[in-house]
């Protein structure tokens, strides 16, 4: 979703612990050390591309950032990094990998 299937070894990632599964939102930044595409299942017409990644942590979040912090940013055309993150990661309650802008990455970096 949102370019997540284009992730490659060496990419920088921000790791969020799923709040739907008891997590707290942003927990770390890391570097992707391995990527493996997961084969599609037979007989299912529409499937989201899936990948499995291995990440080496490079920083730990010093400040929380999660759904409750971002849910008020809903003006999809305001170009704020908070709105981009809310739109891409919190509109659907599923675990995902998604590409973000440099502006959003810089914003997230302020929490580490």
Question: Would you write up a description of this structure?
Answer:
20% of the residues lie in helices and 28% in strands. It is an alpha+beta fold and 112 residues long. It has one domain. The protein has a three-stranded antiparallel beta sheet with strand order 1-2-3. Helix 2 crosses helix 3 (102-109). The chain is globular, with a radius of gyration of 14 Å. It starts with 11 loop residues before the first strand and ends with a helix.
Please render the helix and strand layout as text.
Elements: E1 12-17, E2 25-38, E3 50-60, H1 67-70, H2 81-90, H3 102-109
Antiparallel strand pairs: 1-2, 2-3
Helix pairs in contact: 2-3
Number of helices: 3
Strand portion, in percent? 25-35%
Structurally, the number of domains stands at 1
Q: How is the quaternary structure best described?
A: single chain
Largest sheet: 3 strands, antiparallel
The H/E string reads EEEHHH
Q: Unreliable segments (pLDDT under 50, ≥5 consecutive)?
A: none
Shape: globular
Helix amount: 10-25%
Tally of strands: 3
Mean pLDDT rating: 90
Give the strand order of the largest sheet, numbering strands 1, 2, ... along the chain: 1-2-3
Cα(first) to Cα(last) distance is 25 Å
Structural class: alpha+beta
Radius of gyration, in Å, reads 14 Å
């Amino acid at each position: 979703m949102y370019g997540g299937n284009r992730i490659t070894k060496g990419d920088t990632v921000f790791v969020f612990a799923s709040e739907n599964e008891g997590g707290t939102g942003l927990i770390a930044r890391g570097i992707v050390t391995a990527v493996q595409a997961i084969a599609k299942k037979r007989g299912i017409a529409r499937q989201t591309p899936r990948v499995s990644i291995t990440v080496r942590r490079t920083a730990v979040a010093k400040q929380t950032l999660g759904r409750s912090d971002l849910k008020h940013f809903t003006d999809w055309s305001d170009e704020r990094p908070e709105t981009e993150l809310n739109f891409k990661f919190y509109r659907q309650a599923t675990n995902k990998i998604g590409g973000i802008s440099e502006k959003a990455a810089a914003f997230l970096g302020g929490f580490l």
